[in-house]
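Posting for a labmate who doesn't have an account.
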Amino acid sequence: MYHLRQALSGIKRAGLMSVACIMIMTFSLLILGIFLFATANLRELLKYAHEKVEIVVFLREGIEQATVDSLKAEIEAVKVVEELRYVSPEEALERLKGEFGAKSYLLDALEDNPLPSSFEITLRPRYRFKNIVESLSGQIADMPGVEDVSYGAGWIARLERLVRALALADIGAGLVVALAAIVTVSYTVRLTLYARREAIKILKLVGATDTFVMTPFLLEGGIHGAAAVVLSLVAIFIGYRVIGVRVPQVRFMPAGMIGLFAVFGIGVAMLGSFVSLKAFMKERNRA
């Protein structure tokens, strides 16, 4: 409790400097938080897209039933395949009519059903990725009786690239935030140290260890970081609620990401205090 009281006392004495430090850290963490928020939602979108990954295999016109059965068995034997559904031309036409809705009568003018029979293939969850979809589609396209293969890997690949780019942006933003936090907190704590240098000198004379002297200042940095984390999360949450009115599908950052964000914010703030303390103690030891 002594160390905590000293830390709070130090923040109070620093006054506007502490407020400025917290505000600068809040702004820095807010930038990082926005990137993390966007990444979390893109990952949810990518997860949803992977769940919808499906390969459609169009069969040649007039294909014999024996060939259909052989193809079905061969594809089902592939370990990445979770489910295979056969869609007859009649079923495909009924689906198309359903999509046309009230205008389905337009299709009644067709003399013959132009739609081919097909297979709809769903992959096992852990295999729903662009490279696997492309590889399997290429294998199936070369099988006898197959006219064409369709899959939505193109837009999933673009989404995956966007998620990777945002992940790199998160790292870049994290480095910038860490540097800003370390410099800001280090400067603030350094001013507090010089203001209390006589008290520190007395503590050292009566036998206080460096750890005892440093602990309140480390806590001071941690409190700065915690305050900035809370303020930035509140700002992000308000933004999330505003966006959620127009886009109900948007999600807030998951608990794990929030935890890492808090640890990061408090950690870099305490690191800033530590850097300043080490420099100060080194100067005192030389003196």
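Reply:
Got it, the structure tokens are right above this. The first strand starts at residue 54 and ends at 59.
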